[in-house]
Amino acid sequence: MKNFKIKAPLFILIILCFLGCKSTTQWKGQEPIKKVSTQTVPIQRQYKGVFDLGDGIFMSNDYSGARMNGVARTNDSLLSVLITPENLPINPSPWYGFKIWSETEKDQYVKLTYNEDAFHRYFPKLSKNGSTWEALDSLRYTSVKKIFNERELAESITMKLSLSKDTLWISAQELITSSEVDGWTNKKLMTNSFVTKSTIGESNQGRPINLLKIGESNDQKMIMVISRQHPPEVTGFLAMQAFIETISGETDLAKRFRAVYNTYVVPLVNPDGADNGHWRHNYGGVDLNRDWESFNQPETRAIRDFMREKVTETGGKFYFGVDFHSTWEDIFYTISPELKGNMPGLVPKVISGLEDEFPGYKPNIRPSPGTGTKINSTAFFFFEFGAESFTYEVGDNTPLEFVRKKGEVTALKLMEQLLK
Ligand SMILES: [Zn+2]
């Protein structure tokens, strides 16, 4: 893997065309971030259990990562499920997850409905074991459309599910809770002598905020990687996994990188949100990616304190910081290129490296005006530490093979640039 060069198969080229060839109509991204209160507010907890729906059919939300706020048999052939958020107001990323089984084999219609002003967003994923997932057959899916903020979206959807005694799992995206994240770090990363794990704080509900250290350097040069402030943003997490596995890999580049730079990773910033099946917030009812100035929440404070103490103790510098998310389409939210941090030009070079590696791919880059306000994580990394930074957003429906490839290539280009 020394001379890494992708031989892009045809399907990747098609995906790239889908993602990049419409450069004249590239999505402008979300509205600029506004400062909001990040004081703790009450959240609504789900009533968890097994629901007997008659006719030998049962449903359950009694597991980590589930979200099903109510279910009713609305007629002989239809079960209606209600999905609501942990609290309001909230950005619309309605996570859902439940299990269903039947005493006899049958096809069953199940409708997903949401609270008013919300809409269906994630195409259903199905699993027979809770760990391998595939999308529902689109022929078994219908929706009722409505216009929400100029996008035509579904206010409800109906799935035709094949039920049997074996449990069928239904989920907005593949289920990755705190135990799956631990499984990944233990099996894929902790087997390397150059990876160590520590706990830098506790979430609202007392779950550990885990930090991985990857590298064998003296901490004079460091990078910071975080993911899953927003629980449903699984495609961003999958890109982060590929990125981190590449930095932890066997290539000469990765070995040279780890001798000079230590990479610090918080793979799951919001474990309570992931395990409680939240749409977006932590257990304090707060969007953590608006709390990087006020630090009212323990999850953001843990990362702030770790970084500050590290710099004070070692005299070292964070040269780069990245926060992985998911949204409608692939996009990079960067710091204004006029602002100079510890390695000016790093982020544009990494992104243009991606462009070189995937012919025809036109990255969608949206620099923030850079007013110095540290509302979100990457502004905090930049304005507090001078770390060149960006928010790495992966589309909800970006094909997973491309998500991984892009995560790998981003790590390779970054390591090359940081070692120059
Ligand atoms: Zn996000």
TrEMBL record:
Active-site residues (renumbered): 393
SMART domains: Zn_pept
Residues in Peptidase M14 domain copies: 174-418
Protein name (record): M14 family metallopeptidase
CDD domains per the UniProt record, alphabetical: M14_Nna1-like (cd06237)
PANTHER family cross-referenced by the UniProt entry: CYTOSOLIC CARBOXYPEPTIDASE, CYTOSOLIC CARBOXYPEPTIDASE 1
Pfam families hit by this protein: Peptidase_M14
Highest classification ranks of the organism: Bacteria, Pseudomonadati, Bacteroidota, Flavobacteriia, Flavobacteriales
Source organism: Sediminicola luteus
UniProt KW keywords: Signal
Family of this protein: Belongs to the peptidase M14 family.
Cofactors required: Zn(2+)
InterPro entries, per the entry: Cytosolic_carboxypeptidase, Peptidase_M14
